[in-house]
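Our preliminary data section would be incomplete without showing what the modeling component actually yields. Below, a chain of 493 amino acids is followed by its predicted structure, encoded as tokens that our downstream tools consume directly.
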Amino acid sequence: MKGPVKMSKKTLLIAVLGLSCATTYAYNVSGTKWPGAATHLYIGIPGTAPSGVTWSEALRRSALDWTANTPFTFNTISSYKDPCNGYSVNSQASGFPDGQGDGLNGTDFTTTVCGNNYGTNVLAVTLVYTESNLLGAFDITEADVVFNANSRFDIYDGTMSQSRGTDFERVALHEFGHVIGMSHEQSATSIMRATIGNSFTLQDDDIAGATALYNGYRNCPFTDLSFGRRNGSLSSGDCTVQELMGGGDDPSLVDVYQFSLEQATTVNIDMTSPSLDSVLVLMTGKSEVIEIDDDSAGACNSRINRTLPAGDYAVLANTFAGESDCGDTFGPYELTMSYASNGLLGLPGRASLQGGNANASFSGAVTSNKGQSYSNLVRSTQSVDVTGQITVDPVHRGKAGFIVVAALLDDGEILLRDSIGQLISYDPQSGNIPKFKSKTLAAVENVAVLSNTVPAQLGISSIVVDFLIGYGVDSDPNELYFHAAPINLTVTP
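Predicted structure:
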């Protein structure tokens, strides 16, 4: 994290494709890209090439090539939009084009670049509007493509043919690379080389570049994050924001976590550290930044509290680059993630002991007020109930079976509830799974994991426990169906 960034006015970048030769190097990205890894593109250029293929069909196929082979998605719209609408001729003449555009990505044949002359041998130009964002490089807000109407185009595959003119489709494929944020490269076969060549489909180098640009938080090592506490540390050699964003110039360190929600949930995430100047970043599964915080939890600690819809998310444990008035830029930290809900939470991830599949679903939560509300974060003096619910696979309903309840302690010990309700130590090597209940399986099984339990009365002032619930059928007693994401209980003094 480099510090607060103010939103700038829109600026405009220009990318040009020409006809001359080039040398070789790998893909080139700057980090400038579309939030959400997707945009709409108006492809309604009228007319047909000498080959009989319409110009709009060639544009559609070029956009589809990027969509099919990279994390980016083009949503093509068959109607026409003027790519020069909102473009400022005077601003380019002054050497720093900005303009405001119209927020629509248009395409067209033009005799000039929206009022400015095409350069010698220039086949097409992409006009990319950008603005600064909260993390990484710049966001693209609009990208228009103009094709040089003074050039002779056709649509065909294979080696470039002087007699037929320039293949329009590979030019469009190149320009759409600029639309998504790709820079020029000069590998011998790449579509994104600065001059047109004999390649007419995306090459490995092009795909690798777009993947690096739009892989988002997956560019860094990441781990699953569950409700509860997790300790970590930022140190030399960790991933950086620059690596994560596929460009930009932010060298600050970052650890990456991901989690999923099966329904709308209010989530609170705290990052605390005795020495680190902590920064929290919450992102969507497509790496769109939802919120950044560096001091809401007081001192050098950060906090994010949001109600999030169902979906996939990433949390970045980040810090500032360079010197900071608040703390160090490396060191240990603790993440605490809790929820507030009016009902049980869906527990994502399906698992089994023997690798079997079951069309079952699981939910669960912790309450300290008899179900008026739910949260995994409770005080040691409160009376706690942990409740689970299993929607049993229809093929198992009505069969003789059993329910299992497991408690995973933060020291690695596994406890299972036996038939009289006691939590007993479990040895996975024993092959003997204690059964909490043996019964004929109903369509829905409600499971009382803990009832009326006051941790302080058991001598517990602070603990983190993850609970799992599952079931099996007597005809296959060694198989057990359960959930991957646990029911977390975090007790504080």
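The helical segments are 55-69, 89-93, 168-180, 204-214, 241-244. Residues 80 and 462 are 63 Å apart (CA to CA). Preliminary results of this kind motivate Aim 1 of the renewal.
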